[in-house]
Amino acid sequence: MAQIFPQKTNILSKVSIVVGGLLAAGGLALVMGLARSPYVNMVGVSREQPVPFSHKHHVNGLGIDCRYCHTSVEDTAFGGIPAVKTCMTCHSQIWTEAPILEPIRASYRTDKAIEWLRVHDLPDFVYFNHSIHVRKGVGCETCHGRVDQMPLMMKVNSLDMEWCIQCHKQPEKFIRPREAVFQMGWKPEGDQLALGEKLIGDHHIDKAKMLNCSICHR
Amino acid sequence: MTTTHPQKTPLDLAAIRNRLSENRGPQYWRSLEELANTDEFQELLHKEFPRHAPWLDTLSRRNFLQFMGASLALAGLSACTRQPDETIVPYSKPPENVIPGHPQYFATAVLLNGVATGVLVESHTGRPTKIEGNPLHPGSLGSTDAFTQAAVLDLYDPDRSQVVTNARRISSWDVFTAAVQSPLDSQKAQGGAGLCILTETVTSPTLASQLQALLKEYPQARWHQYEPAGRDAVRAGARLAFGEDVDPVYHVDKANVILSLDADLLFSLPGNVRYARDFAAKRRVEDHNVNTMNRLYVAESSPNLTGGMADHRVSLRASEVEAFARAVAAELGVANVQSGQWADAEKYKKWIAALVSDLQQQKGASLVVAGDYQPPVVHALAYAMNDALGNVGKTVTYTGPLQSEAAESMASLRELAADMEAGKVEVLIILGGNPVYSAPADVRFAELLDKVTLRVHCSLHADETAERCHWHIPEAHSLEAWSDARAYDGTVSIVQPLIAPLYGGKSFHEVVAALLGQPGASGYEIVRNYWKTQKTEGDFEHFWRHALHDGVVADSALPAKSVSLKTIDWSSSSHANGAGTSEIIFRPDPTVWDGRFSNNGWLQELPKPLTKLTWDNAAIISPAMAQRLQLSDNQVVTLSYAERTVEAPILVRPGYPDGTVTVHLGYGRTYAGRVGGGIGFNANALRTSDAPWVGTGVEITKTTKTYQLVATQEHYLMEGRNLVRAGTIGEYHHEPNFVKEMGEDPAPDMTLYPPVPYDGRKWGMTIDLSSCIGCNACTIACQAENNIPVIGKKQVGIGREMHWIRVDRYYTGDENNPDTVHQPVPCMQCENAPCEPVCPVGATVHSSEGLNDMVYNRCVGTRYCSNNCPYKVRRFNFFLYQDWDTPSIKMQRNPNVSVRSRGVMEKCTYCVQRINAARITAEKEDRQVRDGEVVTACQAACPAEAITFGDLNDPNSRIAKAKASPLNYGLLTDLNTRPRTTYLARLKNPNPEIENG
Predict the structure, then answer these.
(1) Inter-chain touch A212–B847, beta carbons under 8 Å
(2) Can you give the pLDDT at residue B76?
(3) Which tens digits make up the pLDDT trace of B25-36?
(4) What pTM value is reported for the model?
(5) Average pLDDT over all residues of chain B
(6) Least confident range of B527-536, B571-580, B987-996
(7) Strand, coil or helix: what is B68?
(8) Average pLDDT of the segment spanning B576-590
(9) Region B788-816: what's the mean pLDDT?
(10) B92/A107 CB distance under 8 A
(11) How far apart are CA B997 and CA B994, in angstroms?
C-alpha cells in the first residue's frame, strides 16, 4: 500500500509549525498592540466638545490657576468640572456676544446643564481620588500632561493599570514638592530620585500600602 | 400552592431525643434535621452549594472542546473593546454646599407603626443611599434596626404608585382637588356626618393638629386609626390598672432583673433599638470578678428574639401567659390576685419561687414587661407587679399616650365598619395603610367599602385598597416629604426630605390641607407653620435650624406622669378555657411586618430571625405536635378557625409550645408588586377583630399537597466543631480561661512560611455573642452599603444567597425549649487565608493591613476560593443578579462600591471603602486614623453594639482591648487560618436556684 502522505508533507508540517507559532505570536502582539493603541486608549486624540474650550488660552495665556475651575481637586475624589456659573464669572463681562460661547449662555439662561465628553475616563471599578494624590505631591502635569499647551483637551497617558502602577511602585520618580503640584513644566533642581526619596519621607508616603489592591479597587 | 417538590422525610422525634440524651455538656445544633441526621441533611453537608443545578451531564469531549474554544475566543475579543464614551454633566448653577464626591448627611426620622427612629441619611449629589442611626436621637443613639435600614429601598421601589388615578385611569392632583370639592361641600352642609378619615397610628403633632382643624370644620366627621399590628392591649391595660390612658416607657439600663411576659422588648416594641442597646450594655462583662450582668426571665408563646436572649425561658401557650402572670403576681403580693391555673403550674412552682425572690431582691431595679399581643389584663398585672416592686419612676415611667389621638385600633376599625354597613359613610379618606388586605376577616372591610360613595386612598403602593377606591394618590415617601413624628419616649423629630418626590407624591399633610381647602399648600410650609405656633418664644429660625440639624426637637419627650394603681378586680379571666384544643397565634412578620414591606426585596430575602425562613410565611408548629399529627416541613395543611379556612405550608421549629400554630401576617398579598405579590398565604383571612393575636379551636387538616419553603438555617454548615462557645458568668468567674480550653490555637510559628509583620495598621473585628440579639440589622446594613443583590426564592433554595454577613442561629438543649445563640458570620479576613493560594488569577490577595482583598475586575469565576473557604462566607454571582436596568434601583447604589456582574465572587471587605475614606482624610491631615474613625456598616447598625472594629496595633483601641479578653476565640483556628474576625463567647447569667434544680 502506498504511503498516504508524500515526503514533501514533512516540509509542509515543519513550516506550518513555524508559521503557526508566528501567527499565534503575531496575533497576540496585535491584540496587545491594539489594546495599547490610541484607537483603544485615545491617547493624543483631541475630542470634540460642546464648546471648544482651550486650556492653552486660559492657563497659558491668561494664567488662571487649575483650582479656579477644578475647585474640589484638593478636597474630594472628583477633581470637579466647573459649573457654567464659573464660566460666567468672566464671560458675563467679556466676549459676551461671542457665538462660540452661546451654549454656555444658553445653559446659564435655561439652567440646562452642558454635557461634556469625558476625556480622562477610568473604568468604574477604579476608585481614583484626586485629593490624596495632590496632597502627596503628584503634579497635575504628571497625569494630565502639559495642559497649558493643549488648545483642545486630550489624554497624554493611557491611564491603564500598567501605567498607574509605575508610580505606585516607585513614587520617588514622579512626585514633586507640594508647592509645585499645580505648576506646569516644573523641573526638579538636581536629581529627581534624591528629591523623590526625601519627599516620600516629608509627605508620609507608605510605599507598602500603595500596592494593595483595595487601594484602588473596592 | 402546589408543586411537585418531594416531601421531606418526616422527622424522627425518637432519634432526635436519642441524640440529645447522648450529649454530654452543651452541644449546639442548628436544625431539627441535623439532630435527626436525615439523609437530606447528609447530602446538604457534603455540598458546597447544595441542591445545585446538575452539571451539563451529557457533555461529550467534542462539545467540551467546542465550548472551550468559543469561551476562549469570546474572552479574547472582549479584551479589545473600547470603553464607551461617557459624559460629565456639571451643574449649570451649583447648589450651595454640594460637592460631588462628598456625601452629605441629613437628620430625619423613619417611622414604623407611627413611631419614629431618628436617622442620619447619606446623600450623594441628591440621592439618598444609606441610612444610619442618629446618635442624638433617644430611640436610636446611633443604631438602627433592619426595617429602618431597608427604608431606602422602599423609596426606590420601582413598583411604587406613580400617578394619581381615578377609577384606575390616570388623572392628576388638580383634577382630584377639583373633584372632591363638591362632595366636601355637601358634607359641610350636613356637618361632615358622612365624612370619615382612616389613618394608621398618628404621632405627628402637625398631622394631628391638621386633622383636629378638619374635625372642627366638619364637627360630625370621624377620624379612625387602624394599625394592623396595633398595641391596643398596652393602653387598655393601663386604663384597667390606672384608669388613665398612659404608655409605659422602660429604662432597661437600670434594670438588673427583667421578666418578659411574652414581650418582644428587643425587637418589636417601640423603642426596640434603644432597649436592645441598653439591654446589651448590661450583658457585657468587663471584669470576670464582678457580675454586672442583668438577668432575663422570659415566659413566651411564639419564640421571639427576646426569648432567645433569656437566661431562663418558659415556653407557654399564649393563653397560659395570663395564668403564669397571675401566679407570679400572687407570689409578689399584688393585692387580690389569685394564682392562675394552667397545665404546667406544678412544674414551674419552684421556677416561679426563684424568679420572685430574685425580683424582690432587686426592688426598684427590676422590670416586668408585658407583650403587645397579650390581653389587657396581663398588662395590668405587669403594671401592678412593677408597682409592687417599687420600679415605677425607676425602671418604668408612664407618659401620656404617644399616639396623637388615643384610639383603640381594632375598636376604631370596627366602628368604621359598622358605620359603613349602616350606610353612614359617604366620603372615606384613607391616609396610608392597606385595610382591604390587613383588616381581620370578620370586619369584611373590602365588602363594606363598596358601600361608601366616595373612596380616596393615599399610599405608597397601588395596593389592594387602592384597587377598590375611586381615587388613589401616590404618597410621598418619608425621605421625600416634610413631616414630624414622635419617638418611643415622645421626643419629636422633624422629618425632612432628602429628595424631591420621585413620582410627584403628596404627603398626608398636603392631602389634608387640600381637604381643608388649601390644595396648593406645601408640606414644608404646613409643618413649619405648625411649629411656629408651638414655639412663640425666642428666635424661631434658630429653633427650626437646630431641630433640623440635630434631628430632634429639644426637650420634647413626653413628661413622666404619676399614676396610681386602682383597686382592681382580677377575678375575670380573659381567655376561655381552651385546653385540649389547638391555639392559633397571629404575629406581624419579623421581616415584612404587616405587609407594608412586602415589596422590599431586601426584607423578603432576609432570613427571618429564629426560623430562618425566607420569601414565605408558614404555619409553624413544634416538633412534638408535628410528630403527633404526622406532619413535616412543606406539607400543606388546611387551617380552620372561626369558620374560615386557609391553606398553609407547615414548618416545624423547636421552642414552639405544643398545641399551638403560629402564623405571620404580611403575606398572601395580591397587589404588592413584582417582589411581594402572590407569595405566602394571608393570615388576615383567619384573623378576627375580637381576638386579633390568639385564638383557640384551630383545626389542622392534612392535604395531599406540598409547598416548597426555603429556609437558610442549614446552608453553609460548619460541622461538629466548637463554633459557638458559651458559658455562665459563674464558670467565667471560677475559670476565666474556660473559653480558650474549648479549642486549640496553633502556635504562630507553626508554618513553613516566614512571618508577615503587620507593622502599619492591622484591622480586626470582634463580635460579642453575649450582646448579639440576632436582629439582622447588620445583614441589611451590609446589603445597603455594599450593593448586594436580591436573588429570589429559587436561588436561595439552592443555597446561593448573597448576604455578606449572615446570622447563624444555634440551639442547645431540649427541642421543646432550647436555648438560642446567634452568631453573625462575615468574612474572617484570615491572615493565612485558604482562599488566596487557590485563586489562579490573583483576584483575592492580602493587603499590607491584613485585609483579604477581593478584586472583582480580576475574578474569572472559578469558585476555587469559595470551595476552599472553611467559613463559607464567599458569595458567587451565578447569574446577573444585579438589576442593571431599573433606573430607580440604580439610584440607591453606593457609588463607592463596585456593582458586581455575573460570574464574579464577592464577600465582606470590612467595608474597605470606609477604611479608605478615613485613611485619606487622616493622611490629608497628616495624622493617624483615630480609633473609632472607621465604623463598618454592620457595626454602625448594630443596636446591641456587639461588633467592635479597629486597629489591632493600637494598644489603646477598643478592638485591642476586646481581643485581650479571655472570652475571645476564633472560628476553626485549629486550621491555622488565623482569622482577624473573632468572637467573644456567649455568657449567661442563670439563677443558681433554678440552674441547680
Answers:
(1) yes
(2) 54
(3) 557 777 777 766
(4) 0.91
(5) 88
(6) B571-580
(7) helix
(8) 81
(9) 90
(10) yes
(11) 5
Q: Is A24 on the interface with B (CB under 8 A)?
A: no
pLDDT digits (tens, 9 = 90+) for A73-95: 999 999 889 999 999 999 999 99
Q: Is A171 on the interface with B (CB under 8 A)?
A: no
State the Cα–Cα distance between residues B921 and B927, nearest whole angstrom: 9
The per-residue pLDDT for range B166-193, each reduced to its tens digit, is: 988 999 999 999 999 999 999 989 988 9
Report the gap between the CA of A93 and the closest CA in chain B (Å).
Answer: 17
Nearest CA in chain A to B916: A215
The position carrying cell 413584582 is: B674
Rounded to the nearest angstrom, the minimum Cα separation between B862 and chain A is 19
CB-CB: which of A121, A206, A208 is closest to B86?
A: A121
| Residue A64 neighbours by CB under 8 Å, 6+ apart | A58
- Residues of chain A neighbouring B73 (CB-CB closer than 8 A): none
Number of domains in chain B: 3
Residues in chain B within 8 Å Cβ distance of A214? 847, 851, 853, 909, 912, 915-916
Among the partner-chain residues A76, A118, A209, the one whose CB lies closest to the CB of B86 is: A118
Inspect the interface and report whether the beta carbons of A81 and B90 lie closer than 8 Å. Answer: yes
How many CA within 13 A on the CB side of residue B666? Answer: 27
CA distance B477 to A128: 34
Nearest CA in chain B to A134: B924
Give the residue carrying C-alpha cell 439563677. Answer: B991
Quick one: pLDDT at residue B308?
Answer: 92
Closest residue of chain B to A124, computed from CA coordinates:
B898
Distance of alpha carbon B148 from alpha carbon B146, whole angstroms? 5
Structural domain span for residue B585: 13-18+576-711
Within a domain: residue B571?
A: no
Report the gap between the CA of A144 and the closest CA in chain B (Å). 17
Last residue of a domain, one of B341, B376, B399: B399
**Domain layout of chain A by residue ranges:** 8-41, 55-81+116-215
Which of B711, B737, B768 terminates a domain? The answer is: B711
Confidence band, pLDDT 50/70/90 cuts, at residue A104: very high
Given a contact cutoff of 8 angstroms between Cβ atoms, the answer to whether B953 and B761 are in contact is: yes
